[in-house]
# Entry
Amino acid sequence: DTAVSQTPKYLVTQMGNDKSIKCEQNLGHDTMYWYKQDSKKFLKIMFSYNNKELIINETVPNRFSPKSPDKAHLNLHINSLELGDSAVYFCASSQGRGQLSYGYTFGSGTRLTVV
Amino acid sequence: GQNIDQPTEMTATEGAIVQINCTYQTSGFNGLFWYQQHAGEAPTFLSYNVLDGLEEKGRFSSFLSRSKGYSYLLLKELQMKDSASYLCAVRADSSASKIIFGSGTRLSIRP
# Structure
């Protein structure tokens, strides 16, 4: 049973296209995140939702739009893809906003390549 | 600003001990995490420190000094499977759940 699952695992697409990445967690956590890991392996937070409410929105181009239909799902839609969007995108979840002694549980990542 | 520094790469020998250091400068502090990430895989949680001192968990230990903005991860009895990147991460804000990651230390274990 996968705790945090992302689809697709790999995504190759052309510049200018619009694509979505889906994430689901079955841990009963109430907070979910999207992180971007670039070629230098630097993990940077993009968005976070708590019980479907947006609580973290870092400086990310507005071509990126998260959507949380319920607390178990957090999807990421990207419009007008650019070469610089190529990276691995990780979804993660945690229980609560203040109690994080066990950190996040990460999904296996989506490797996005824009050509 | 937020800054987390750790060495880019380290090499150690199977069976030995290695210490990976992390220094941080953040606007606030509410806990420090260490994660392990094998190539092509997701980061997995290793340890959490919020008070000064050493936390031991099997072959892995993590130390924190809040006054010095310093932590280390100690790996004992190294095994080949310990070859991975080790990410230091800090939660800077107690009211939100954002964790800021360092760029990671790639550890290579040689026989």
